[in-house]
Amino acid sequence: MKRTIPNVKGEVILSYQENGYQAVLDKFDQAKFINIVTYNINTYEPSTFLIKELRNVDSSTPITLILNIPARREDYINKRTGKIDPAAVKSASDKIKYTLKVLERGKFGDLNVYFNFDNHAKLIMTDTIAYIGSQNFSDASQAKFELGFLVNEPESIKDINNRIFAEIKSKSILYATSEYAVLMEEIADIMRGLLQNIREDIFTWVGDEPHYPYQEILDINNAHFKREKWEEFKDLHYRFEEIVESLINDYPSEFNKGAAEKEVNRLSDLVKRFVSELDELANFMSSMAGKMMWSKFEELDIGENMDEALEDALYHVRDYKQEKFYEIEDKGKELIKTFDDIEKCIKELETIIDEIKDAMISKSVYQNIELIENYK
C-alpha cells in the first residue's frame, strides 16, 4: 500500500535539543481540531511535554491521537524455549498500564485515542499546519537530531488529513472517545456516505461557462439508484428518531426535546415526500429496467444483427422511461429544494445536539480494551 500527495510545499526543519514541531504546538489554541500519529509517548507523567500541552487545549477542540505501544507484541512466546516469556509480559503490562493511565479522558477535554500496532509514522497537525518527520512526540526525542517537514498550504493540509491521517485511523483500534465524537461521526457518515452519494447518483450538473452557468438538474436518463442505498435513505428519519430518543433518555434536563422532535418530524415529512416522488423510478431503475431491456433484446434478436437488436432494446427502455417518468423531470427544481431541506434539517439537529456538547464530551466510551491488553 502506498499513498502519495504530490507537489507539497513546505519547510524542511532540522532540530536538535528542541521540538521541530513547535510551530504546530503554537497553533493549538486556534485549532479546530488536533490530529497526532506517533510511535510512542512518555508514560512518566511529570515529564510528558506534549501531554501537558494537550491538557491545556480548549474542551471544544477534538483531539485524535493514534499511537503504538512499543513493548506490546502479538504473543509473548520465547522463541528459544517455546514458552511464555514472563519478562516480556511484565514489560508489556507495565507499558500498556502506564500509557492508558496517561491518556485517561477525564484529564483532557475531547481526547479520542486509537492504537495501531503497526504504526511507525509521525504526524502532528491542526486544520492549518502539519509537521511530518522523524521525531517521536516523546520528550526523549528533543535531545536528538531530528528531521521534519512543516506544511502550511491549505490544500496540502486537507489532503494530509483526508488521505494520510484518515487512512491510518481507518486501520487503527478505537480505545477511548467521547459520546459526542461517536455521534458526530455517525451523522457525518450519513451526510457524506449516504446523502452525498444519493445526490450525486440522482442529480446531474449541466452547463457551459460562462454563457450557461452550471446548475443542478434531474435527468432521468442519467439518474441511477443503488437499491441498498435507496432503501437506507427511505429509513433515514428512523435513524434520527433513535438518536433523539436516546439523547432524551440520557440527558433529560439538558437536551432540547421539543426542538429536536420538531426537526425529526420535519425530516420525516421531507424524506417521505421525496421518496413518494421518486420511489417508482427508483424501483424501475434498480430492478425492472434491466429485465425489460433483455426481454426486448430476446424479442428483437433473430440472429441477423445482434448489435442493432441490443441498441433497439436500449432505446425501447429509454423511450418507456421518458414516457413514464417525464413529469418527474419537470419537478426537478422542487425535488432539489426538498433534498436541500433534508440536509438543512440534519444540520439543525446537529446544532441542537451541540447545545449539550460539553455534557456529551464528559461521557467516555471505551472499546477494544481486550485487544489492547493482550498480555494476560
Description:
With 376 residues, this protein is an alpha+beta fold. The chain has 2 domains: 11-171, Endonuclease Chain A (Endonuclease, Chain A), CATH 3.30.870; 188-358, no CATH class. 51% of the residues lie in helices and 15% in strands. It is built from 12 helices and 11 strands. The chain has helices at 22-25, 49-55, 86-102, 154-170, 179-202, 227-234, 236-250, 257-300, 306-330, 332-354, 357-361, 369-372, and strands spanning 11-15, 34-38, 62-67, 110-115, 123-126, 130-133, 146-151, 173-178, 203-208, 212-218, 364-366. The strands form 2 sheets. The chain has a 9-stranded mixed sheet. Strands 9-10 form a two-stranded antiparallel sheet. Helix 5 (179-202) crosses helix 6. The longest helix is centred in the C-terminal third of the chain and has 44 residues, at 257-300. The radius of gyration is 27 Å and the shape is elongated. The protein starts with 10 loop residues before the first strand and ends with a helix.
**Straight-line distance between termini:** 33 Å
H/E series, N to C? Answer: EHEHEHEEEEHEHEEHHHHHHEH
User: How much strand?
Assistant: 15-25%
Radius of gyration: 27 Å
User: Roughly what percent helix?
Assistant: 40-55%
The total number of structural domains is 2
Query: Largest sheet, described in full?
Result: 9 strands, mixed
Order the strands across the largest sheet as they lie in space: 1-7-6-5-2-3-4-8-11
Low-confidence segments: none
Number of strands: 11
Tally of individual helices: 12
Task: Specify the overall morphology.
Answer: elongated
- What structural class results from the helix and strand content? alpha+beta
Whole-number mean pLDDT: 87
